[in-house]
Write a structure and sequence with these properties.
This protein has about 400 residues and is of the alpha+beta class. About 60% of the residues lie in helices and about 10% in strands. The chain has helices at about 1-10, 10-40, 50-65, 75-85, 100-135, 160-190, 195-240, 245-270, 275-280, 290-295, 315-335, 375-385; strands spanning about 300-305, 340-345, 350-360, 390-395, 395-405.
């Protein structure tokens, strides 16, 4: 059963169709080759001479190879190979051929396809009628008339006609299966991704990953900070609910304002998902000049000192610095509770420096399920800006420092 399946199974039949399509694609080039051969031979009848037909076939192949150098040829060839050749779709490249090596490989594949396809198509058209006539020859005397163009069979040679006809059909099937298998073997090599394609795909994946990481940091910093602030305000209000209604009203107002602002930031961040990479890289967002509003809603007592012109910091650097401060405040809530925070931001000709300190509460910090990624996000933001960040307990206080150049955003 293995041999019949390889010769006449579904994969073999699809490959046969693929070869016939290659023969059909050959025809325009063959006609052009016939015109060239006819002109060279002084107007000889190309279609009436087998040597001239072979010459036209030989002229057609290089013309086809040149036409396949266009980038669009690879997607068309890949689509046909994936559907009909029975090869692993992942082994073939996507998109037009962008490099010289890819175009040369595609031209080689196209030439091989239409060359083998032309031979198999010609055999498919010619052999079956001839083989059927040979098989029927012993039973119909009229077929043995030489005027029909059949070979002359008489005597015992008539008995050989049927086996020769069957052998012709078997030869056709074997040739089609063999050529189809040859194309399937060469498809990954000629239509597969080149080193340039792999590099472009890796760069695209890296760009997509950078965008996803940026959006994750934005969501973490904005929503995470808001939830930490809301948790602190709600906890404080619950403890003094019966004793200080005025404070409770202030806490609820702060919670309302924080959640409203966070919903707006969340909409802005999610809006980045509908924009291109360039827009994501330069999307608008809160910056250092908006820190006063952040500090007033955080629920902490913050001693804030600013040295230098914060408005002169470039937008991207200012936005990333704002997020670092925001995450630092969220971290202070977890490690220091309601302890006061000292924040200093210095801007000079060399860069921006952020220093944040708060006393440790002495109790275990609030840990979110699955752990947090705030400090890692701060380090990533600082690294993207060409600087560095450090955070940790030191001499009874939690200290966060970050420094990066003003023009160092990458």
């Amino acid at each position: 059963m293995i041999i019949p399946t390889r010769l006449l199974g579904r994969t073999a039949r699809l490959r046969w169709v693929h070869l016939v399509l290659g023969g059909a694609a050959l025809m325009p080039y063959f006609l052009l080759g016939a015109v060239i051969v006819g002109a060279v031979t002084g107007g000889a009848n190309v279609y009436g001479s087998l040597p001239l037909q072979l010459a036209a076939f030989a002229c057609a192949l290089p013309i086809a190879a040149v036409s396949a150098l266009f980038p669009i040829a690879r997607p068309l060839s890949v689509a046909a190979a994936r559907a009909l050749c029975g090869v692993d779709p992942a082994a073939l490249a996507d998109g037009p051929a962008g490099s010289r090596a890819a175009r040369v490989r595609t031209a080689g594949w196209f030439t091989l396809h239409i060359g083998l396809g032309g031979v198999i198509s010609g055999m498919t058209l010619a052999l079956p009628p001839f083989a059927v006539a040979l098989i029927a020859l012993p039973f119909f005397a009229a077929l043995r008339d030489s005027r029909l163009g059949m070979p002359v069979f008489d005597g015992w040679t008539v008995l050989l006609a049927a086996p020769v006809g069957l052998a012709s059909l078997l030869a056709l099937v074997c040739c089609a299966a063999g050529c189809g298998a040859l194309l399937a073997r060469w498809a990954p090599r000629l239509l597969g991704p080149t080193p340039a394609d792999r590099l472009a795909a890796a760069e695209q994946r890296a760009a997509e990953l950078a965008v996803r990481n940026r959006l994750a940091r934005e969501l973490h910093d904005s929503v995470g900070h808001a939830l930490s602030a809301v948790t602190l305000q709600a906890s404080a209000a619950r403890r003094v609910f019966d004793r200080d209604p005025a404070f409770v009203r202030e806490a609820l107002a702060a919670i309302e304002e924080t959640t409203r602002r966070t919903v707006g930031e969340l909409d802005a961040v999610l809006g980045l998902l509908r924009q291109g990479d360039d827009e994501v890289a330069g999307g608008a967002g809160p910056g250092l000049t908006g820190l006063d509003g952040l500090l007033s809603r955080t629920g902490l007592k913050v001693s804030y000192t600013a040295d230098g012109d914060l408005a002169a910091v470039p937008e991207l650097v200012s936005r990333e610095a704002y997020r670092i401060v925001q995450e630092g405040l969220s971290n202070a809530l977890r490690h220091g509770g309601a302890a006061p925070v000292a924040l200093r931001i210095a801007v000079d000709g060399e860069g921006v420096e952020i220093v944040m300190e708060n006393p440790l509460s002495g109790t275990a910090p609030v840990v979110r399920p699955g752990g947090g990624r705030g400090l890692l996000g701060i380090a990533e933001r600082a690294a993207l800006l060409g600087g560095r960040a450090q955070a940790g307990p030191k001499d009874g206080v939690w200290r966060l420092t970050a420094r990066f150049p003003v023009g160092g955003a990458r």
